[in-house]
Amino acid sequence: MFIAKVVGNVWATRKHRSLEGRKLMLVKPFSPETGACAGETTLAVDGGTGCGPGSVVLVLDEGGSARMILKDENAPVRTLVCGIIDSIDSKGKAVKYA
Fold first, then answer.
1. Rounded (5°) CA angle 33-37-39
2. In which band, very low, low, confident or very high, does the pLDDT at 21 lie, cut at 50, 70 and 90?
3. Residue 83 vs residues 12, 79, 80, 92, 93: alpha-carbon distances, Å
4. Can you give 30-55 as a three-state secondary structure string?
5. DSSP conformation class of 26
6. CA distances from 96 to 29, 32, 71, 80, 83 (A)
7. What value does the mean pLDDT take over residues 36-45?
8. What one-character-per-residue DSSP string does 73-88 give?
């Protein structure tokens, strides 16, 4: 799992039937300590969180677990947004995102 910022969404005219009705998001790993993006942009399926560009999210990067959340063992998914982060408390310092 990693923390990321949603930087955009992807529109697809054709999707695998397992992904119909699901949003495809572009996420960029995010470091809460520095406030900076810390990695390459990745495509992730929204697991029903309702996230959008600008949201700070928790991303699951393990296909088997992602398919379990979607309840579809045949879904072609590896990376899934599984939560929206409201705030992070670390080392006595709280940062709010929502």
1. 115
2. confident
3. 23, 12, 9, 23, 21
4. EECCCCEECCCCEEEEECCCCCCCCC
5. E
6. 17, 10, 31, 22, 15
7. 92
8. TT---SEEEEEE--EE
What length is written for the chain?
98
Identify the H or E element spanning 3. strand 2-10
* Segment (H or E) for 68: helix 63-70
Contact criterion met (CB below 8 Å) for 42 and 28: yes
pLDDT at site 19: 87
Q: CA 18, 67, 75 angle in degrees (round to 5)?
A: 30
Note the pTM of the prediction, 2 decimals: 0.88
Domains and CATH numbers, the chain: 2-96 (2.40.50.220)
- Residues 44-87 have pLDDT tens digits of 999 989 999 999 999 999 888 888 888 888 888 999 999 999 99
